[in-house]
């Protein structure tokens, strides 16, 4: 198992635990069992920690139960103050292909496309979700960006979340409710691609160096898909 030296120092508690556990449990396995174990772990969407080139991510397809996820979806859809954001491009104001909202502690402002966003205060749902995911991520998040993808025409283009507000080694936890959409990672140098279907109730934690070496996107799809809500929990330094 190869982990960059730089990353090893920044793996949060949970990742270190999982690494230790997976090393321990793999010891008594026979060679063929080990191969099975590794193949399963190599599937990008299998549950658990994935160490990849220049980074690591943790994925749990059913972190929230179906019932919990149904309740969160309905409640977030209704109570979040969804907004159509837009940006100036070639002298025209262009709408982003999704609705979004920014929530967090007072002071966790976030600047993108030259616009500084002030957060709405945490809601009960957001506090609940934060409490559930924080122990796994090894950090307590102080802000969350929400996106509502209304149908297959909504998307987010290739980008990284390595903004200066997030500090040098950001831990970002992505929580998903509603329709399954493809989440793609692309290595900046090698162009290697990893695809993870983000299912109803799934949790994806991206960590450390990953944001510097990999971009991510949720592409449009011509398949008929229902609405999807994605929450990316972040720690804003302020
Ligand atoms: O919808 C997603 O899964 C990704 C959202 C995202 O990358 C972002 O908000 O920065
Ligand atoms: Fe992102």
From TrEMBL:
<dbReference type="GO" id="GO:0046872">
    <property type="term" value="F:metal ion binding"/>
</dbReference>
<dbReference type="GO" id="GO:0016705">
    <property type="term" value="F:oxidoreductase activity, acting on paired donors, with incorporation or reduction of molecular oxygen"/>
</dbReference>
<protein>
    <submittedName>
        <fullName>DNA-N1-methyladenine dioxygenase</fullName>
    </submittedName>
</protein>
<keyword id="KW-0223">Dioxygenase</keyword>
<dbReference type="InterPro" id="IPR005123">
    <property type="entry name" value="Oxoglu/Fe-dep_dioxygenase_dom"/>
</dbReference>
<dbReference type="GO" id="GO:0016787">
    <property type="term" value="F:hydrolase activity"/>
</dbReference>
<dbReference type="GO" id="GO:0051213">
    <property type="term" value="F:dioxygenase activity"/>
</dbReference>
<feature type="domain" description="Fe2OG dioxygenase">
    <location>
        <begin position="140"/>
        <end position="237"/>
    </location>
</feature>
<dbReference type="InterPro" id="IPR037151">
    <property type="entry name" value="AlkB-like_sf"/>
</dbReference>
<dbReference type="GO" id="GO:0006307">
    <property type="term" value="P:DNA alkylation repair"/>
</dbReference>
<keyword id="KW-0460">Magnesium</keyword>
<keyword id="KW-0227">DNA damage</keyword>
<dbReference type="InterPro" id="IPR032854">
    <property type="entry name" value="ALKBH3"/>
</dbReference>
<keyword id="KW-0560">Oxidoreductase</keyword>
<dbReference type="GO" id="GO:0032451">
    <property type="term" value="F:demethylase activity"/>
</dbReference>
<keyword id="KW-0408">Iron</keyword>
<dbReference type="GO" id="GO:0140097">
    <property type="term" value="F:catalytic activity, acting on DNA"/>
</dbReference>
<keyword id="KW-0479">Metal-binding</keyword>
<dbReference type="InterPro" id="IPR027450">
    <property type="entry name" value="AlkB-like"/>
</dbReference>
<keyword id="KW-0234">DNA repair</keyword>
<dbReference type="Pfam" id="PF13532">
    <property type="entry name" value="2OG-FeII_Oxy_2"/>
</dbReference>
């Amino acid at each position: 198992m190869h982990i960059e030296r730089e990353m090893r120092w920044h793996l949060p508690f949970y990742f270190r635990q999982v690494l230790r556990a997976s090393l321990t449990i793999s010891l008594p396995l026979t060679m063929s069992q080990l191969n099975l174990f590794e193949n399963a772990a190599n599937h990008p969407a299998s549950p658990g920690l994935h160490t990849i080139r220049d980074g690591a991510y943790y994925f749990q397809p059913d972190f929230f139960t179906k019932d919990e996820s149904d309740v969160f979806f309905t409640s977030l859809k209704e109570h979040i103050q969804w907004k159509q954001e837009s940006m100036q491009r070639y002298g025209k104001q262009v709408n982003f292909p999704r609705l979004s909202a920014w929530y967090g502690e007072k002071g966790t402002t976030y600047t993108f496309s030259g616009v500084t966003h002030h957060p709405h205060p945490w809601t009960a749902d957001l506090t609940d979700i934060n409490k559930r995911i924080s122990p796994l991520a090894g950090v307590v998040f102080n802000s969350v960006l929400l996106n509502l993808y209304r149908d297959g025409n909504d998307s987010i283009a290739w980008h990284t979340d390595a903004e200066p507000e997030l500090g040098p080694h950001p831990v970002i936890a992505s929580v998903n409710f509603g329709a399954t959409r493809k989440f793609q990672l692309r290595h900046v140098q090698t162009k290697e691609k990893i695809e993870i279907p983000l299912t109803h109730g799934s949790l994806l934690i991206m960590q450390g160096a990953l944001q510097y070496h990999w971009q991510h996107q949720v592409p449009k799809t011509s398949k008929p898909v229902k609405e999807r809500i994605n929450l990316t929990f972040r720690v804003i330094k302020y």
